[in-house]
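Example record used in the benchmark description.
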Amino acid sequence: MFVGHYSAALAAKGAEPRTPLWTVVAGCQLIDIGWSVLVMAGVEKVRIDPSLPGSSLDLYYMPFTHSLPAAIIWSVAALVAARWLLKLPFRVALIIGLVVFSHWALDFLVHRPDLLLWPGDGKVGLGWWNYPVPEQALEIGLLGLGGMWWAWSRGRSNAGVGIPLLFTAGLIALQIAVMFMPQGKGGSFQFGLNALVAYLVITLAAWAFDRAPAKKGSRRR
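Model output (structure tokens):
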């Protein structure tokens, strides 16, 4: 899953307007940001298998990011960082932590059984990756719902819906572009680097949207 993860970020921003957009945008992909770094370092492993139906990614070793205990640890760490480093209210920090954990829950829907319930044992995953059309529909559908919730929330406070619509549309366009890109060109290091750059660029865009001036007479959402 790629842009589907951002549905949790957009929904969180709609639910709690005090949440900085960049924190949940980075948070929903924090596990994959860590995964990208560990793949580049050779700690976690990925290979491309063109014989696989749908996504050709074979994520055969990623216990430090995508096991259930690891996902919980990443989520709690994000909560602690948001509360004590960023000095955000506890409710906001809790939402950020839940958004981080949403990554594992959404991956469970699409991944083949490669998500460890415990490091070394019990791999799970419903395998929607094997059915590319329904999987893409799921991702874009979830993103659309998250974007609509954020836009509705902003509309209620007279903040305008341009930002959520533009941000959501940009993510959908990115997903469509990724669908036509060859996977795995340049090896696992290059794949990890490309993914990391994409996540950081999207986070930077979210930070820029955060700084956009709010409509006069409205509450920032």
